[in-house]
Structures are given as C-alpha cells and as structure tokens.
Amino acid sequence: MQVTVTNADGLKRELKIQVPAQDLEAKLGAKLDEMKGQVRLKGFRPGKVPVSHLRKTFGKQVMGDVIQETVGETSQKAIEDESLRPAFQPSIDLEGEIQDVIDGKSDLTFKMSFEVIPSFELADFSKLSLERLTAEVKDEDIEESLKRLAENQKNFEPREEGAKAEEGDLLTLDFVGKIDGEAFEGGSAEDANLEIGSGRFIPGFEEQLVGAKAGDDVVVKVTFPEEYGAEHLAGKDAVFEVKVKEVKAPAEVKLDDELAKRFGLESMEKLREALAEQMKGEYARMSRQHLKRAMLDKLDELHDFELPPTMVEQEFNQIWHQFEHELQHQNKTAADLDEPEEEVRAEYRKIAERRVRLGLLLAEVGDKNSISVTDQELNQALAERARQFPGQERQLYQYYQQNPQAVQELRAPIFEDKVVDFIAELADVQDKVVSRDELFTDPDADEHDHHDHHDHDHDHDHGDEKPAKKAAAKKPAAKKAAAGKDAGDKKPAAKKAPAKKTAAKKKDD
Fold first, then answer.
1. What are phi and psi of 210, to 5 degrees?
2. Cross-strand bridge partners of residue 171
3. Phi, psi angle pair for 455, to nearest 5°
4. 261 contact partners, CB below 8 Å, separation of at least 6
5. SS3 of residue 43 by DSSP
6. Beta bridge partners of 97
7. 3-state DSSP: the chain helix, strand, coil percent, rounded to 5?
8. Dihedral-angle region of residue 301 (phi above 0 means left; psi in -120 to 50 means alpha; beta otherwise)
9. 8, 79, 382, 418: least CB-packed within 10 angstroms?
C-alpha cells in the first residue's frame, strides 16, 4: 500500500492510496481457498471443488468483496499511520476503471477526502474563576408549594340553586360558535367544563360568564386573536350561544394529614419534608445550570481555533432547518422578521460555530482526561427514559438496541455533564446567594426574550448566545446542545401536534 498526501490545506486533507493488483490477487486467492471447503456444487464432492472453477464461477463477485474490504482496511490504516483525526466520515473516490481492477489488470487506486479535528491547547482550568448562584429553600417557599398542591387537588361542589357564577367557579356548558351567523367547525361543544379565570378559552370568553346562573342562556361575543392557529378564524369576530348547565364552587382543601395521604405520605410533616427535598433538588439543578452557562461562556472566550468548515455547515443547516420549521409553525417566513435574512443567517452561523467549538473542546477535555460513560450510567439513563413511557418499556429498550445513534444521543449528555463537573472541580468556584426568583431566571435567555422560551432543556445545553435584536415575528430559539463528536449533541424535542380542540379554547391550551 502506497499513501500520498495530495492536499493538506488548513484542516482539509486528501490522501491518495494505491494497492498493488498482486495484493488484491493474494486476498482473492485466500478467500477462494477458504470457500473451497464450504461451497457445495453439483458434480463435485464436498471440499473437492477446484479453485480454478471457483474463480470462474465466483471470482468477480468475491473480488468485489475484496475491493470493498481493502478500501475500508487501507483507508483506516492510512489515517492511523498519518496520525490524523477525521472530523467526519471520509469520502472515497475510486480512480480508473473498476472493471480493470476486478479483472486484475490495474492496481486499486482511490482518493480519500476529509477534514481533521484541529489541534489546540486547553486553557488552565485552575485559573478559571466562576460564580455559582445558590438560594435557600425557605419555609414560606414550602408553604407556597403546599398551597399550589392543595389548589391542584381542589374539588368543586354545586352552588345553591340560583347562585351566580364567580371567578374560580367551574361551569358545565353547551355552546355553539358562529361567525356571520354561520356555525363554524370546531366551535361547538356539549358538557364542556370551564373554570372561570383559568385562561383556557380565548380572551374575553370567560369574563362574560361571571354572574351567569345554571339554566341561563348567555351570548358571548369575542374576537379571535390575530395570531390564532387556525387561519380561517384569526382576527374574526365570533358569537357563542352558551347554555350554562351547572355552576360549581371550589371546595376548600385543608393543609392536613388527609391531603398528605392523597400523595401516599402519612402526615403533613412528611409531605413538607418531601417537598423540601424536591425543591432542594430543583434549586441545585438551576444552580448547576447557571454555573454551566458561565463556564461555557468563559471557555468559549478562552479558546480560539480553526473549525472544520463541514462541521460548522452541518450544524448551521440543522439550526436553520429548525428556525424555518418554527417560523412555519407561527405561519410566518423569514420575510416577516425585522432583520434582513442574511443578518439572521450570520447570527445563527455564529451560534453554530460556538456549538462546534465547545463540542470539540469538551471532547478534547474528555479524551485527555480519560472521561467516559460507563455501562452502568448508560443503563441508568435508559431506565429513566423508559419510566417516561409507562407500558412501552419493552419497545423502548428494543428501539435503543437496534439504533446505535439513539444510544449515542443518550450517552452524549452524560459525557458532557461529566466533563463539565471535571472542569468545575479544577476551577475556582465561589458561591453567591441570590433570591429564588433570580436563581430560576433562565440563564440562556437574554433581556429581550427572557419570557419567550419556556421549553428549553436546562440539563444538557451549551448555552447558545441568542441574537440580540428582537424580530417582529419572534425569532425561534433554534437551540440544542453544542454539536461535537462526543459532546452533548441533544437535538431539540419535536413539538407535539395538539389534540383537536374546540375553537373557543386557546390554541396553546
């Protein structure tokens, strides 16, 4: 095998590999000889088929296999001999006529093109100064949480005959929605339950039912929001003919042992303790998320190295695809933004570069410090994943057994967290006590869209910088963990299609 480096421009590499025809012939002969004792052909005793006959019958097919195996083996050996680290699967381009190679008339010659992982120096993590936000779980926070639990457990009892509906009451309704006097699809329901003040129905609907009594017929006039999901209803005036069938008032739920027993605990004291532990875990999770974001910001500042162009392009394409998908979900296009499309593309390309840089960086830290994910950690993550799909555990385990890429996506965030923890152990980390509200501020949201993105994954995220300008059509976050070969490459969860609801309900209900 002869290897020639034909291109070494920046991170690009191209190798020309030549394998002599006699080497291929030797491999072919060895395979045919191995087949001799296995092939059963009519007219020949087992193990007595001449190699010459096998060559005539199977030679071209076997040589095809030999060539395929040789390309795989020699390309891998060439990479190892040259001490290269490809950023992705190399592309192979065979030269010459493949039939001449199969016939043994020509050497096997091919070119292998790829980009390599850059070499770079890691910062001294012991000189990294970081701030970890912490907050104390206070008694009043626990009591507030208890009240929310009780609120969620409340029952409703029928009001006395003739009583008027109040804020917080539960109404049972029949209604028919009409636009320009014509009933529209999805605008009718029977025995629908509505808690006044819940905000489940479109703006203005619930308020007009305050004061209604069981048996009343109420005409509710509303205007569908301009951004309503169903285009044929958006911005339209509608009239709902509502029949109030029953009015129920919320029954008081006491903070006592009976409430605790609803949650499987023996006393209110035990419930308080359980809530306190749960809240401590939530506080610790948010504290870690803030620390992680601050760490990744500093690591990004401290490291500047050339990035494989193809990795950046692939990452950008994923971001842009999600961006367009989310715009489509809002019934908008890039033309609806208050920035030119090229500026938006430039902003998201910077995010792509950050993700690739941090991904490569964390992978390098893990590699140099022998950080890996154990089978036990992977099995634990798989078990936690299975608990999210009760009754489908078997199918989920089979899915992961049959999909190595899915296993990698499960492994990646575990690896990322272990690397982050490793760096945090070396860094100078100082605790800063803050309020609960400050602790639970999304560390990945800037001042412009702090309240716009509530569906971020806080556990495995490389803290993308969001574009500073706010678009007229809200710019989707287009977020996921930084793409690196080994770093947490967790794709954003696909949005579930909402179940069909009556048009009176808010689209995001």
1. -65, 130
2. 194, 247
3. -110, 20
4. none
5. coil
6. none
7. 40, 20, 40
8. alpha
9. 8
- Unique residue bearing structure tokens 């045919």: 32
The answer to whether 82 and 3 are in contact (CB under 8 A) is yes
Give bridge partners of residue 244 from the DSSP assignment.
173
| 311 class by beta-carbon count within 10 Å (0-12 exposed, 13-18 middle, 19+ buried) | buried
Asked if 101 and 21 count as a contact pair (C-beta separation under 8 A), the reply is yes
* DSSP string of 135-154, one letter each residue: ----HHHHHHHHHHHHHHT-
CB atoms within 10 A of CB 485: 18
Phi, psi of 243 (to 5 degrees): -110, 115
Q: Coil, strand, or helix at residue 227?
A: coil
Contacts of 310 (CB under 8 A, 6+ apart): 87, 88, 115
The pLDDT tens digits along the chain (509 residues) read: 899 999 999 999 999 999 999 999 899 888 888 777 666 666 665 666 677 777 887 788 888 899 999 999 999 999 999 999 999 899 999 998 999 988 888 999 999 999 999 999 999 999 999 999 999 999 999 988 888 888 777 778 899 989 999 998 999 999 999 999 999 988 899 999 999 988 888 899 999 999 999 999 999 999 998 878 787 888 899 999 999 999 999 877 777 787 788 888 888 888 889 999 999 999 999 999 999 999 999 999 999 999 999 999 999 999 999 999 988 888 788 888 888 999 999 999 999 999 999 999 999 999 999 999 999 999 999 999 999 998 899 999 999 999 999 999 999 999 999 999 999 999 999 999 999 999 999 876 643 343 333 333 333 455 554 443 333 333 443 333 333 333 333 333 333 333 334 556 665 55
Give the whole-angstrom CA distance, residue 355 versus residue 315: 8
Q: In angstroms, rounded to a whole number, what is the distance separating the alpha carbons of residues 307 and 314?
A: 12
Helix (H) or strand (E) holding 7: strand 2-7
How is residue 440 written in tokens? 């639970």
- The model's pTM: 0.69
Answer for the pair 103, 403: CB distance below 8 angstroms, yes or no: no
Give the angle subtended at the CA of 334 by the CAs of 359 and 340, to the nearest 5°: 85
Is 204 in a helix, a strand, or coil? Answer: coil
